[in-house]
From TrEMBL:
The protein's annotated pathway: Amino-acid biosynthesis; L-lysine biosynthesis via AAA pathway; L-alpha-aminoadipate from 2-oxoglutarate: step 4/5
GO cellular component: mitochondrion
Domain Isopropylmalate dehydrogenase-like per the UniProt entry, residue ranges: 9-356
Reactions the enzyme catalyzes: (2R,3S)-homoisocitrate + NAD(+) = 2-oxoadipate + CO2 + NADH
Protein's UniProt name: homoisocitrate dehydrogenase
Assigned EC number: 1.1.1.87
Sorted UniProt keywords: Amino-acid biosynthesis, Lysine biosynthesis, Magnesium, Metal-binding, NAD, Oxidoreductase, Phosphoprotein
Organism listed in the record: Xylaria multiplex
Any one of the GO BP annotations: lysine biosynthetic process
Keyword Chaperone annotated: no
Family: Belongs to the isocitrate and isopropylmalate dehydrogenases family.
Length: 360
């Protein structure tokens, strides 16, 4: 007898642009998971984004937040367009969601297929609530400083640093478990690299460093190797030897820069997933934006979204289901017959999705 259906309420927030073309793929792959896994998904369509703002005056309607908070186990978020000029009253709904749901970790796996010439398999874990992103800036004037000057607060707390390092350690352990369960990987043992610039910022980054080390020294992380690296030398090594990283943990700003840089190592933004993770809740979100240049053409690569869907499942504790999605995506990429144009192929979004569903 199959196990009782494990119901999972999933919010779907397509947003703008190609978000509307790729989020349906996430839904389809969840619906296509084998029934032997015993999972049953219930979907709720939710609005957010620039178009929602233009229609209703709110980029993130209250209903979206309420449903996510009270009814959902996880969600998929597509993309929102960022208007080139600041629009009065508009601000990014995903930034607001991270705050409202306390999604304190941004998790970004960057991975090539195993057969790549220089295989990469790393995860960047970015602190997502503080650092320079507290956006406490001001512009002042002082003749002694030559006139106008501006400054910004970089805020680092022990609490946020401890919890981001803890989740990085947990991710490293889970990746090890996935490997032991047969997942292909270039790594053989878990490693967390702590990134900072404490040689210059001894108090802020110094606190991050101390707390990260403390969190990762917990007995349950005994099997996780921990190293640290100054962010500038990290960038160098990231580009020279990307295969040597497993899990990287970083404060907000360095994490932002490192994760976009790492995404460039795998060829297309259309491949790179992410998850916004809090206590018991995760939103899968492809790393790309709304891609106005290809919107409506039906050629957006759905893989970033499919991998984000798998990542969401990982954080819901459904590693088996996640592993099946990763394997189906890898099979499509290894075979390289049905690839979207960003990867040099000719396949449409629909053709790529059908191929991956077939492989699943
Ligand atoms: P936004 O303001 O919403 O971030 P953008 O103009 O920055 O939009 P991105 O979505 O960040 O655009 O994309 C950058 C480039 O990568 C674009 O040329 C886009 O077409 C391409 N791209 C992004 N995502 C995909 C995808 N899923 N499939 C194919 N190409 C993509
Ligand atoms: Mg962009």
């Amino acid at each position: 007898n199959p196990p009782p259906a494990n119901r999972r309420a999933t919010g779907l927030i397509p947003g703008d642009g190609i978000g509307r073309e790729v989020i349906p793929a996430g839904r389809r792959i969840l619906e296509a998971l084998p029934s032997s896994l015993g999972l049953k998904f219930e979907f709720t369509d939710l609005d957010a984004g620039f178009e929602t703002f233009q229609k209703t005056g709110a980029a993130l309607p209250e209903r979206t937040v309420d449903v996510l908070k009270n009814e959902c186990d996880g969600a998929l978020f597509g993309a929102v367009s960022s208007p080139t000029k600041a629009v009065k009253g508009y601000s990014s709904p995903i930034v607001a969601l991270r705050k409202k749901l306390d999604l304190y970790a941004n998790v970004r796996p960057v991975k090539t297929v195993a057969s790549a010439a220089n295989p990469i398999d790393m995860v960047i874990v970015r602190e997502n609530t503080e650092d320079l992103y507290v956006k406490e800036e001001r512009t002042l004037e002082d003749p002694a400083r030559g006139g106008v000057y501006a400054e910004a607060i970089k805020r680092i707390s022990a609490r946020a640093s401890l919890r981001i390092a803890t989740i990085a350690g947990e991710i490293a352990l889970r990746r090890q478990k996935l490997r032991e369960a047969g997942a292909a990987s270039i790594h053989t043992s878990p490693l967390v690299t702590i990134t900072h610039k404490s040689n210059v910022l001894s108090q802020t980054d110094g606190l991050f460093r101390t707390c990260a080390k403390e969190a990762l020294a917990a007995p349950r992380f005994a099997g996780v190797a921990v190293e640290e690296q100054i962010v500038d030398s990290m960038v160098y090594k990231l580009f020279r030897q990307p295969g040597s990283y497993d899990v990287i943990v970083a404060p907000n700003l360095y994490g932002d820069i490192l994760s976009d840089g790492a995404a460039a190592l795998v060829g297309s933004l259309g491949l790179v997933p992410s998850a916004n993770v809090g206590e018991g809740f995760a939103i899968g979100e492809p790393c790309h934006g709304s891609a106005p240049d290809i919107e409506g053409k039906g050629i957006a690569n759905p893989i970033a979204t499919l991998r984000s869907t798998a990542l969401m499942l990982e954080f819901l504790g459904e590693e088996k289901a996640a592993a099946k999605i990763y394997a189906a995506v890898d099979a499509n990429l290894e075979e390289a017959k049905l690839l979207s144009p960003d990867l040099g192929g000719k396949a449409t979004t629909e053709e790529v999705v059908s191929d991956i569903l077939k492989k699943l």
